Amino acid sequence: MAKKYAALLRGVNVGGSKKVPMAQLRSVLEGLGHGDVQTYLQSGNAVFSSAQQDPVALARELEAAVEAHFGFPVRCLVVDGAYLRAVADACPFPSAELEGRQLHATFFSEQPGAERFAAIDPAAYLPEEYRLGDRVLYLYAPNGLGRSKLAEALAKPAVIKGIDATTRNWNTVAKLVELTQG
Q1: CB-based contact 70:12 (threshold 8 Å)
Q2: Alpha-carbon distances, residue 49 vs 4, 5, 33, 34, 158 (angstroms)
Q3: CA–CA separation, 152 vs 71, rounded Å?
Q4: Beta strands in 20-140 (DSSP E)
Q5: Residue 83: in which H helix or E strand, if any?
Q6: Could you report the per-residue pLDDT of 5-24, keeping only the tens digit for each?
Q7: Which residues pair with residue 6 across a beta bridge?
Q8: Prediction pTM value
């Protein structure tokens, strides 16, 4: 039975480096035997269906295919539609009341322990806030990610070392939930 997945490629098409045209990414995914392939925006978001039930294996397969096709490594996270729906449903911030640029989800390849965040004093970054979820970090940044001092602190190697992480704004999260349902 085929399942719907979202592939989140890290750091592509940003600032002119690691160019991954979405039409070519669709071809790579189709070449791997996946169906119903769609891309969303130019920032490395793809949706596909696959009979494969292991998202980690799908991610490693896609990483190898992307490197073979484009000539550079790209870390990928693959998550299924049920997980994306659970992330959206568990959002601790009022997502319906916020602009998409104010709310972000950082997806992790594994659950980070709370000790990784111990050196971050939440009060020092107010009104910005974050909450940990299931392999996801929710970030409320009222002035956007580009101006967020909390986002800088959360992205430091001491916090995320050894874990693959990639961030999407809430508009993208909502669209990926929609595209992976059914």
Answers
A1: no
A2: 4, 6, 9, 6, 35
A3: 29
A4: 35-40, 45-50, 76-80, 103-108, 129-132, 136-140
A5: helix 81-89
A6: 999 999 887 777 789 999 99
A7: 47, 79
A8: 0.94
